[in-house]
């Protein structure tokens, strides 16, 4: 896990923006880690392609430099690709590799031992493209159901292990060369030095998988987050958490904060579970309608889920099984059913049929929960307090014209701290009104600082003379 603080840093950099199509909230928190090294970006309308939205989370390790640089520049490398107009999937794949090459040729970055995951979502002309390299993750709620938009890249996956071996590497202790717990990432150039292999064939590659979807009025929201969230909760659990909060009328930026508090470990003795930095973006689809319409859809989905759960366990009870059912009327406390013979408690609805009898849930349009999108550590939920109480802790708001984001989930081995770049963001509006600007990229910092608006146009301008300490990688 690396070094940990004696008490978690629970101040949050929380942001909000919206237009007629999206209501977006984000937040990041340092937690138990010594430093913040994640980055995230949300742009409602790309400067080079107005009307196209871009959202991304970058989970840095070994330092903040790579995640910070990606947060400022990845969308630019994607839109500059010649394939962007006709083949957005290929533009995303080549854009990831172009960014990685630019960092390798950057004197301030090429010798860094740091790296970063990257999961980016582009929505253009009612088509959604999700590009992923690493174990940060994006999920969607469509018609009240889960659609997993990315799969985690771990060295133990068969296809990943094959590429690692073909590039001259090995997997030991579930890590590439016994070193890195990811098989795809930006940066980590020490694991990309096989001169006989293409960038996408290296033992660790920045080449992303890309999922494509058609967006229609059934789409409710997206959740994009680093593994500090997914290590604690499964994709289905996160969807239900967000769905319940939206059904209560809570704004997405508030839900981001609540979700991080839900995943924060009560102490630093949980083997790393709940001890990471955390970064979350929630994108609510408005479809040109008031936010209240989404609230209504989520209320219906929650009510349907609870009704199905009640029906399922009433059927078991009718078969002679002793069952205690507690039904609630609000999404704050979902339906709970305890079966006497099994001694287990279950909530939610994972596998019930849709009203039209479809047992595959929303798999017709995408992918529902599977082995790669769940959390092994969720089995520990019954054995520990789920979150640390953080009431009274101030929530940090950023200035209206700052620009880039970073916050990390990896501890430092020798205690030295990389200099975290200044952040930029749009302020969260408590009354729900949209901010004046539409482009933002946010860097988490525990201190409130103002910075002039900066929009960089090339990668080589992002130099920093700060030194990096030796880090534990993931």
Protein described:
This protein is of the alpha+beta class and 474 residues long. It has a domain at 14-301: Phosphatase 2c, domain 1. 21% of the residues lie in helices and 24% in strands. The chain contains seven helices and 20 strands. A hairpin with a 3-residue loop joins strand 1 and strand 2 (22-33). The radius of gyration is 22 Å and the shape is globular. Residues 326-471 have low confidence and may be disordered.
* Assembly state of the chains shown: single chain
Task: Identify low-pLDDT runs.
Answer: 326-471
CATH topology of the domain at 14-301: Phosphatase 2c, domain 1
Which geometry do the CA atoms define?
A: globular
Q: Which structural class fits the helix and strand makeup?
A: alpha+beta
Give the SSE string. Answer: EEEEHHEEEEEHEEEEEHHHEHEEEEE
Lay out the secondary structure.
Elements: E1 4-18, E2 22-33, E3 38-43, E4 53-61, H1 65-80, H2 88-104, E5 115-116, E6 118-124, E7 127-133, E8 137-142, E9 145-148, H3 158-166, E10 171-172, E11 175-176, E12 186-187, E13 209-214, E14 219-225, H4 227-230, H5 235-247, H6 252-263, E15 278-285, H7 291-318, E16 323-326, E17 336-339, E18 344-346, E19 396-397, E20 439-442
Parallel strand pairs: 1-19
Antiparallel strand pairs: 1-2, 2-15, 3-4, 3-20, 4-5, 4-6, 5-12, 6-7, 7-13, 8-9, 8-14, 10-11, 14-15, 16-17, 17-18
